[in-house]
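Hi support team,

I submitted a single chain yesterday and got back a structure, but I'm not sure I'm reading the token output correctly. Could someone confirm the output below corresponds to the sequence I sent? I've pasted both exactly as they appear in my results page.

Thanks,
R.
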Amino acid sequence: MRIRCPHCGERDNGEFSYLGDAAPVRPDGLAVEAAAMHDYVYLRDNLAGEIRELWYHAAGCRGWLVVTRDTRTHAISDVSPARDAALARRKGEAA
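Hi R., thanks for writing in. Yes, this is the structure output for that exact sequence:
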């Protein structure tokens, strides 16, 4: 599988470290029940199809990326810096 890094160009996936699903939002550990933090840390959906994932470009720019990938075919439809996704999420929360 090849990932097109927005900073470094197309690279082999061996240069990257996979973190997981980009959708879960970390709850404020001081303001939530222990069960909510447990669910965030340990419970994940294992969907077949398109999913947004976090990848770290360890052997390149050392940037975090959000990769939209189909888990059935490994086809990548979009790659963007994680910072852009986080800023867009914050803007959506503020609205």
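A quick pointer for reading it: The first strand starts at residue 2 and ends at 5. Let us know if anything else looks off.

Best,
Support desk
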